[in-house]
Design brief:
about 350 residues; Creatine Kinase, Chain A, domain 2
Length: about 350
């Protein structure tokens, strides 16, 4: 079985190390980089956001090395501009109204059409690109991965706070993000013509191009990948690698049919919502059978043991299983740190950035 090539995008907040507050310092940060480095470190929607993008990687070991390199490079650039990187899904005390967007026509267009709902989406995700050369297989893998959305959401949850308060959802980022009509689980697709039709149906939301369709999983046409973009940003490289490993293993299961999960269209939507709200403890349904997300992940990992071994993913499979058994996710670490520092943003941010 041909392995997937892998690319990973990580998004970070830019914060003042003295206060822990967000700072719109992307231009100052980028100005410290060489022209070549700007191909890997880029702005995103808000000026308080920085994004890194790995080159195409052949395996998880290479992904890990690139994530470490890019985090070091991005943090050095941020420090030269007087700011720090924040590796979480959402700032604990986000004040989005005071944060400007990057001066790109596309961003202004989306803001004009979607207003505050779009502007308030000041948070950060981790996107996994799986290289799939054939268009038909890209569509098939996108379709198959939809059943895994609650697993990805719960495992990656890292945004328990919003605007200074504990959010009622385990995944505040995705809860808020999903209020946009351009954000959702993708429908069951037949071909890329249906992707174009979906963009056209959202014209009143300012959607004009493929990148305006913020589906949780997105088959890309010009860039021959399946992009899994539902997950919160992860705090450590180990966190990110565990998440990427889960995505790769799920895609291999879809491709091979070995241990693959199946869910109806209604179950996909309901399971997604349940995982956003309750994380590992959410009760979800596959073909009418009920289970928690945690038990579903462990069951999938057990059935995919041979697949993981054949793809040299045995170690990451064990890492994922250990974390799920302990009910660990990056958001739990953030909650523990928040409690330890009693909401002191400066001390909280300092400890988080030290984990980069």
């Amino acid at each position: 079985m041909e392995p997937f090539t892998i690319g990973v995008e990580e998004e970070f907040g830019l914060v003042d190390p003295a206060t822990g507050r967000l700072v719109p310092a992307i231009n100052e940060t980028l100005s410290t980089l060489s022209e070549a480095e700007r191909f890997e470190i880029k702005p995103d929607v808000h000026q308080a956001t920085l994004e890194t993008a790995t080159p195409v990687c052949l395996d998880l070991e290479e992904v890990g090395a690139e994530l470490k390199r890019l985090r070091h490079l991005a943090r050095r650039a941020a420090n030269r501009a007087g700011v720090e990187l924040l590796p979480v899904g959402a700032h604990t005390n986000c004040r989005w109204r005071s944060q400007p967007v990057v001066d790109y026509p596309r961003y202004h267009r989306l803001a004009e059409h979607q207003g505050d709902k779009w502007l308030r989406c000041l948070f950060w995700g981790l996107h996994v690109h799986l290289g799939v050369p054939e268009e038909d297989e890209r569509i098939a893998i996108c379709n198959g991965l939809r059943a895994y959305l609650p697993l990805f959401i719960a495992f990656a949850a890292n945004s328990p706070f919003w605007e200074g308060r504990r959010h009622r959802s385990c995944d505040a980022r995705l809860h808020i993000y999903s209020q946009l009509q351009t954000v959702d689980a993708p429908p069951l697709l037949k071909n890329f013509a249906e992707v174009d039709a979906a963009i056209g149906a959202l014209a009143d939301q300012g959607a004009e191009v493929e990148k305006d369709l913020y589906w949780d999983i997105r088959p890309r046409r010009m860039l021959p990948t399946v992009e899994v973009r539902v997950s919160d940003m992860q705090t450590t490289v180990e966190d990110s690698l565990a998440l990427v490993g889960l995505v790769v293993l799920a895609a291999l299961a879809v491709r091979s049919g070995d241990g693959e999960l199946h869910a109806s269209e209604d179950e996909i939507i309901l399971n997604r919502t349940a995982a956003i709200e309750a994380g590992y403890d959410a009760r979800i349904s596959f073909n009418g059978g009920m289970s928690t997300v945690a038990d579903t992940i462990l069951d999938f990992l057990e059935r995919a043991e041979d697949l993981a071994a054949s793809a040299d993913l045995g170690d990451v499979r064990s890492l994922i299983a250990d974390r799920v058994k302990r009910r660990f996710h990056a958001g739990r670490r953030l909650l523990d740190l928040h409690n330890r520092h009693q909401g002191d943003e400066q001390r909280l941010i300092a400890e988080l950035t030290a984990l980069l």
